[in-house]
Amino acid sequence: MADKVKLYDIPEEEFLLPGNRMCAGCGLSLIYRTALKALGPNTIITVPASCLTVLHGMQGFTSVDKISVLNTPFATVAASASGIEAALEAMGKDDEVTCVAFAGDGGTTDIGIQGLSGAAERRTNFIYACYDNEAYMNTGVQRSGSTPYGSFTTTTPIYGKTEHKKNMPKILEAHDIPYVATSCASYPLDIYAKFKRAKEIKGTKYIHILSPCPPGWGFSTKDTIKMGKLAVETGFWPLYEIENGKFSLSTPSKRLLDPAKRKPIEEYLSTQKRFNRLSNEDIEEYKRYINQSWEYIKSKNLTTQLL
Amino acid sequence: MVDQKVYEIILASIQKPVVGEAGKTGSWSRFKPKIDLDKCSVVKMNKDVCHFCWLYCPEPIISRTIPPKINYEYCKGCGICAEVCPPKAIKMVEESEL
Amino acid sequence: MTSVEEYQVMTGNHAAANACKGARVQVVAAYPITPQSPVVEKISFFIENGELNARMVRVESEQSALTACVAASATGVRVYTATSSHGLLLMYEILCWAAGNRLPIVMNIAMRSVGAPWSVWTDHQDAFTVRDTGWIQMFCEDNQEIYDTNLQAYRIAEDPSVYVPTFVNYDGYILSHTSMLVKLEPQKKIDEFLPPLKHHLNLGDMNVVMGVCPVTTPDIVKREEGTAPGYYEFRYSLQRSIENSIKKVKEVHDLFAEKFGRSYGNGIYKTYRAEDAEMYIFAVGSVASESRLAIDKLREKGVKIGLISLKLFRPFPTKYLRELFKDAKLIVVFDRDIGYGYEGILCYELKSALYQSKNRPFIKGYIVGLGGRDVNAEDLIDGVYRAIDLEKKNEYSEQTEFIGLKLDELDFLQEVVK
Asked: Does C269-409 carry CATH code 3.40.50.920?
């Protein structure tokens, strides 16, 4: 389990440089800034086509300092990490260097899932981080497997998405890897703690981080933190870790086992333009969906307590 | 001679880290955060007790110092710091009011 | 002096695997496909047996296989992969990525036809289909040549004047599964020929920070910190390096010949009975091998014909071929592939190369042996005679001609039509 982290535990040293290409208020920007502090300089990151490619800058110049990065085509980030890790092993450097694949939700849940599943099955020693802004944001907000129910995107322009999002952490959990965690841009201490923990573990580590996106979700840039917090506090996006099969809810989500402690989902849905045509039935569907996902969490939690 | 150029281009595929890769991103917004030092917790207590603005800033443009300093050259003006500041010491103001 | 004991009997696939062992590859990533699979099986055995100190990434697809090779190569180690047909096509995107990143990857293509319909048998469609991805491409005619060319390929690809990934192609089954005598060289001698990799990309060196393969723009970027080339300059650099690599291909071939005593023509093409030839057969791989028999029989009949078996297909050795064919009257090209809607790929590449020649020979192309249909010397001879006739009449056929089709035997077609 990740250690408790306090604000002043987080290093002042920055790896993300100012004046980068990310939109104002970008959730990914905050996630990446925080994660790099936890990963530190002895890290090789591989990145598929995504907003993160853009963050890494154009042509000969990058906004990322002190960390080596390999860009790779969309479907291939986990295989790319497998290659880096194999080379590090061949060089005898796999213990001193951390290998990380950092991809968006499209690159993870859709086009990249085969490579990720393969790498996890091979027990590849790397961290796979998925920043989930719930659509293909870099190409202009198209529907992905991770887009939530009812959400309007440019490829679901009239009816909104008619399916719920793919539960990627659960799929990775089924791969029996040593570490699966969820996090959210609005909780930098949680992000930092989980990347730190993942770095200490050998094998495949998967961290799935919800990343509010002001232009894609339709909210003001100042509200990025608020949106992520609402996603967690309504119970829509539970924060947890599963280390060697042991499930534990992270602090912000712990008390939400009691449904009464969850904020009404309307508070989350009503503040984003992408949900602005949801019907009452859609909202009821959301309530059912959240309850159902918490039933699963309860059973996981209970099993772990019995262990 | 041409061959040397060809080789140099191969090597030039490697990126260099720079500040302001996207230019002076401070120009993206005319609203900027202004810290009211009378309200700022770390200034008032002269101690590292808050720095939420530094923690939540998606850009590394607020320093973890007393008082916190904002790099206006690159601040994109998102307004997150003003939202998360517990004592509400940060206000978004027109650039001219800084 | 060589003795028989120094030779071993092995398939083309195993010759390729032995070359990897000799080259001390450090990372292998591959996915099984017929007829390439035994290469990977053999390498896996070498690794698990402790004969080869390498990491094997047993990936879940060819796209991942080549991606893992790209990443491992960029991290700074020598890598290898092999594939065929649909596997190669699944790699297509990453083939371009490997070349664009200037990674000295060596890949064997055990050539096989491309579906639909399914066929696991040989033709050259897969290899020719990937000719525009920015790789050096070489063809082999026997198992010793596979072994030797693989060793040379690393030395060529890893040369700082090149840094271009390299294909070494051989026919599925005809070489991949056929046993021949192969001389394996002592490790010490190979090490002298092939020094350890020195790479321009070395992500694994933590003293250097690199961002590799970023987004580029149509123009160059100038900043106080320096100037960065745009996409266009990168493409120029790749093209120039491939063009210039022809010198290195020849140089490495000659060095190899000097050290190991085996050579393959001039390293660019091989000739057979071509010294006094007035006309030529032009082909690659298994078709070139079969043409040798055809040429012997034609020579018996007094036809002054020779074979040019192209070894180096990319870069296309235009200058060499213009010189070689400067007095040729007729060239017959047998393609085991098609540029659909046009003609055999090798044929039109040769036509294009000779267009600027002062004496433009008559070129007649045929399609042969797609999907493993047997290519026999009699059919080739028939093709040559028809070409001689056409040349005399200076007649060009508008339609692509297929040799060895059996349309006449397809009686059931009548039934369907009824």
From this structure: yes
